[in-house]
Design brief:
The chain is of the alpha/beta class. The chain has helices at about 30-35, 45-50, 80-90, 105-125, 140-145, 165-175, 190, 195-205, 225-240, 245-260, and strands spanning about 20-25, 60-65, 95-100, 130-135, 160, 185-190, 215. It is globular, with a radius of gyration of 17 Å. The structure holds zinc ion. This is TatD related DNase.
């Protein structure tokens, strides 16, 4: 499970920058717990939400999916169960799904990853749900997949979470005309600032990304660690973009809402 969006304490952000959480499953075992906190009457429901959300200003979105690290755990019939759950709750997004070449172990596991990813992308397109994509050393494959489809056959929005792709790849995604305005690039301290090389890449890529395409995220499970991680990534991204941190927080909150809009209706 990962959380994204913006989280700031009162001293660092304007009051109208609402914390926004996106909690995402990585395998079917997570779905029921997350379904318990999604849905229209989510406010009355459930410890996880109360834990995450201390007041009503916070927005919680939930994603269901199979992560590329968990493809070996799938039980037959998972696609049908995923579709059913998504159809029952129009606020759900699809995530966290993706492709991870660093975790491939042989041809079979790679084929499985690809199949499971593509099935979920098609489902997200069919049901018009935003998708959060985990991608490691496989951006070219995702690019070809997106490029080969018309806008009508694509999910309404795609966010690369903890983007670690190249400058060229980011430029290629931005030039895909049928995806204009619906591709987002997420940055987290946990992944994008983990090594000097990762931070160097972030500093190289950020200048070409329009501010309307940026998301800040924690990519952490530990609730306590989220505010610090969000402040850290916000400071670095604001510095590279030459923006005030609060202005960046405001823009990225709006971007997160735009990314999730189909799921938060
Ligand atoms: Zn991930």
């Amino acid at each position: 499970m990962a959380s994204g969006g913006n989280d700031f304490d009162n001293s660092t952000a304007d009051q109208y920058v609402h914390p926004l959480y996106c909690l995402m499953a990585v395998e079917e075992a997570d779905w029921s717990g997350l379904l318990a906190i999604s849905g229209r009457d989510r406010k009355e429901k459930k410890p996880l939400l109360q834990d995450v959300s201390q007041n009503n200003k916070e927005v919680v979105a939930v994603g269901l999916g199979i992560h590329p690290w968990k493809t070996q755990n799938v039980q037959s019939g998972w696609e049908g169960r995923l579709k059913e759950a998504l159809e029952r709750d129009p606020t759900l997004i699809v995530g966290e799904i993706g492709l991870d070449k660093a975790r491939e172990s042989g041809k079979k596991s790679w084929e499985e990853q690809r199949q499971i990813f593509e099935l979920q992308m098609k489902l997200a397109a069919e049901l018009k749900r935003p998708v959060s994509v985990h991608c490691v050393r496989a951006y070219g494959i995702v690019y070809e997949w997106l490029k080969g489809r018309s806008a009508a056959d694509l999910p309404p929005s795609v966010a690369f979470h903890s983007y670690t792709g190249s400058l060229d790849m980011a430029g290629a995604f931005l030039r895909l005309e049928h995806l204009q305005g619906s591709v987002f690039f997420g940055f987290s301290a946990a992944v994008c600032l983990r090594y000097p090389a990762a931070e160097a890449k972030l500093r190289q890529v950020l200048p070409i990304l329009p501010k309307e395409s940026l998301l800040l995220e924690s990519d952490l499970d530990d609730r306590e660690a989220v505010p610090g991680a969000m402040n850290t990534i916000c400071d670095v991204v604001a510095e590279v973009k030459g923006m005030e941190r609060n202005a960046l927080a405001e823009v990225t909150t709006k971007n997160a809402e735009r990314f999730l809009r189909r799921a938060l209706r």
